[in-house]
Write a structure and sequence with these properties.
Blueprint lengths: L13 H14 L4 H20 L3 H25 L4 H28 L3 H26 L11 H13 L6 H33 L1
């Protein structure tokens, strides 16, 4: 209880609190690349756990690793510590992490003798890579390309759900959905870029 006549210092506003946190982060040794590499390590751990058929723990590790992937970009912008190489590293590790975990899932299905599910994992990996490639190639041509129903966030949610609830026999369903939606997204982006380039040509 405060003494009579003694005023409490005013609490910092939300904006002031954010400014203080930003200052502390800028002064710290934490870098966006460190967050990106932490995400990679966690996804490797997730793959090992999936390999050992510890799906719940693997799913949790994958979720936390994926969260790191979303935080590194925001932290980079907030702290001012971003760099062109950091952006390149972030995008590269994103593709590696998804592929590493899906490879472990493919090994599991192979052990089960489920060739169809293994094939679906291969399609999911290839399609997820193409989703990213089509965006990068489109942007190199001057076309913004973020369309599609299965961007990385959606793919992470689908795979995470499949891993966490694998004991309910939904992992194969998650893989089929992931492969199908990723493939659809590739065609959506191809169609979008075709339309945009056609429109630009007509405008010229």
């Amino acid at each position: 209880m405060s003494s009579p006549g003694v005023e409490r210092p005013p609490r910092p506003s939300a904006r002031e609190y954010q400014a203080q946190m930003r200052s502390r982060l800028i002064e710290s040794r934490l870098t966006p690349n460190a967050i990106s590499l932490t995400g990679l390590v966690l996804c490797v751990v997730a793959a090992v756990l999936v390999w050992q058929e510890e799906f719940l723990l693997g799913g949790i590790a994958f979720i936390v690793g994926s969260v790191c992937d979303t935080l590194d970009g925001r932290y980079s912008r907030m702290s001012g510590k971003g760099s062109p190489f950091g952006a390149f590293l972030d995008s590269t590790l994103d593709r590696m992490e998804e592929g590493i975990v899906l490879t472990a899932v493919a090994v599991y299905f192979s052990r089960q003798g489920d060739d169809l599910a293994v094939a679906a994992v291969v399609v999911a990996v290839l399609a997820s890579l193409m989703v990213s490639y089509t965006r990068a190639r489109a942007e190199a041509l001057g076309v913004e390309c973020k369309v599609g129903i299965a961007d990385r966030a959606v793919r992470v949610v689908i795979l995470s759900a499949g891993l966490v609830f694998a004991d309910l026999d939904v992992l194969d369903i998650a893989v089929y959905v992931l492969a199908g939606l990723s493939a659809i997204t590739v065609f959506q982006r191809i169609w979008h870029v075709r339309g945009e380039l056609t429109r630009q040509a007509i405008d010229l």
